[in-house]
Known about the structure:
The structure holds 2 protein chains of 2 kinds.
Chain A: E1 4-7, H1 8-18, E2 23-26, H2 34-42, E3 49-52, H3 56-68, E4 73-77, H4 79-94, E5 99-105, H5 121-126, E6 136-138, H6 143-160, E7 163-169, H7 170-174, E8 176-179, E9 208-209, H8 216-233, E10 239-242, E11 249-252, H9 255-270, E12 275-280, E13 282-284, H10 288-297, E14 300-305, H11 311-319, E15 325-329, H12 338-348
Parallel strand pairs in A: 2-3, 2-4, 4-5, 5-7, 6-7, 11-12, 11-14, 14-15
Antiparallel strand pairs in A: 1-8, 6-13, 10-12
Helix pairs in contact in A: 1-2, 1-6, 3-4, 9-12, 10-11
Chain B: H1 26-41, E1 47-51, E2 66-69, H2 75-85, E3 90-96, H3 97-103, H4 105-114, E4 119-124, H5 154-157, H6 163-167, E5 175-180, H7 184-202, E6 208-213, H8 217-220, H9 224-238, E7 242-246
Helix pairs in contact in B: 1-7, 2-4, 3-4
The complex binds thiamine diphosphate and iron/sulfur cluster (SF4).
Thiamine diphosphate binds next to helix 3 of chain B.
Amino acid sequence: xxxxxxxxxxxxxxxxxxxxxxxxxxxxxxxxxxxxxxxxxxxxxxxxxxxxxxxxxxxxxxxxxxxxxxxxxxxxxxxxxxxxxxxxxxxxxxxxxxxxxxxxxxxxxxxxxxxxxxxxxxxxxxxxxxxxxxxxxxxxxxxxxxxxxxxxxxxxxxxxxxxxxxxxxxxxxxxxxxxxxxxxxxxxxxxxxxxxxxxxxxxxxxxxxxxxxxxxxxxxxxxxxxxxxxxxxxxxxxxxxxxxxxxxxxxxxxxxxxxxxxxxxxxxxxxxxxxxxxxxxxxxxxxxxxxxxxxxxxxxxxxxxxxxxxxxxxxxxxxxxxxxxxxxxxxxxxxxxxxxxxxxxxxxx
Amino acid sequence: xxxxxxxxxxxxxxxxxxxxxxxxxxxxxxxxxxxxxxxxxxxxxxxxxxxxxxxxxxxxxxxxxxxxxxxxxxxxxxxxxxxxxxxxxxxxxxxxxxxxxxxxxxxxxxxxxxxxxxxxxxxxxxxxxxxxxxxxxxxxxxxxxxxxxxxxxxxxxxxxxxxxxxxxxxxxxxxxxxxxxxxxxxxxxxxxxxxxxxxxxxxxxxxxxxxxxxxxxxxxxxxxxxxxxxxxxxxxxxxxxxxxxxxx
Lengths: 349, 248
Ligand SMILES: Cc1ncc(C[n+]2csc(CCOP(=O)(O)OP(=O)(O)O)c2C)c(N)n1
Ligand code: SF4
């Protein structure tokens, strides 16, 4: 397919379709309504189904049921809706069911606002639901990357039998950019027949997907098995570096904030400031090892986010006391400007 | 004419297992009916069950089909995802009254209203069994439970909810019937209803719902025999048996 100008939400929807997702379960919430709207028009034509759920609670459980048959499944929502999905995400992770969930983040807490924010970093990377579980979390910063990561998300979900979240801020959803969306064939994905429900006639034994283990020894083993899987997921860590070769000042930012920081870095470089950036693409697994290495050469690390300091805590843990770590954040639907980032960095020189 | 009948364990019953249900509990009877129906319709290998949160949370230990567990009350949404992606399979949910009529009220009403093509078996024992006998939406007026120790007071908790009646106000569902397992003659009718519900699903007629008036001797503080007497004498008058909706 040639490059076409598309809105972020629609690009994510079409990317999912091209990755083989034929079923979508969702509930309306701004700023991601174009995705369910797009899917409701697109999926029936390709033999799939769009179901408008009665709530996000129901939507995520429909996703759980669809994922339980080993089918490529997606739901999308925005912050307050993701809160309602947290129960389901915990069950999906506990039952080891593949699923793709997109959060087009808006400002919070509570009803917050409808403008872009990055305030759900903790919710996405540290839980939200109960118990010891992890989501794979992917954070695009361009629409092409949103397309590519959406398609990757289905492969990761099936490979690890784990829910994968695309954590996109509202800008990612609402802006327009030229993207290329090609048909994506999943390769090297393990066969789902041994566990996916509805295949009892194709295997020796039945399959029971469960997270309930009343015997403490069995539950501990289940938790340990999940932990081993999360350890194996660490190899999926992805990040992008910009001008880090000689960087004395290191900016860490994800999503749209990283785009803004990039412009600030270009300007500061013109002034002779040796500044670079690491942009985590996977927020879980987090590129802590690379951040640790880069911080060894850094005089100062600056974390920039559209919240009051969330990824900051992961960066601090990676840097330890190798370099001072500062923070600059805007929120409520306001993004840090190029100028603000430049000024904040100059203060650190 | 002499007829020899052999009563054996249904094939859909897991080998060599005994349930954890209290003696005389209607869950066990209903499981057996479910297994017999699965055998008779020869659908064991194409059936997917959804285990609820409640005393039947581990029903997959007894009924030998593929299974997924559901969060408390969410079984109808889960079943929607399963059946939409595998319309060629037989999907059932099995839910208690706390699960279905309280925390899962939205999910059951909307799945029924969308006409999802799966079957629900709804066990109404007028109490929260697993958590130790708290008041349920179905607890009768005057009935004592651990969270209504003086008996359910309609001033405080409203009147018990009748799910068959409520769901039969919807246009979409194909089949809604209330049965009981409190006495052998009713058990036979209950099995017929469960079988019909599965048949309607297989024939693609739409959503089917069977409410089973059961018991909870343990939390009602009764002997099993006395408890089923209570089901018949106290529950049935408030929850009349019968067909509430039929596609035909
Ligand atoms: C979200 C959530 N809330 C509460 C519980 C606790 N809980 C477990 S079983 C149950 C009630 C089950 O009662 P019912 O559905 O009537 O089934 P029964 O045990 O009587 O068969 C409750 C409240 C839970 N597991 N999850
Ligand atoms: S607690 Fe009640 S519902 Fe649960 S198994 Fe015992 S008798 Fe049955």
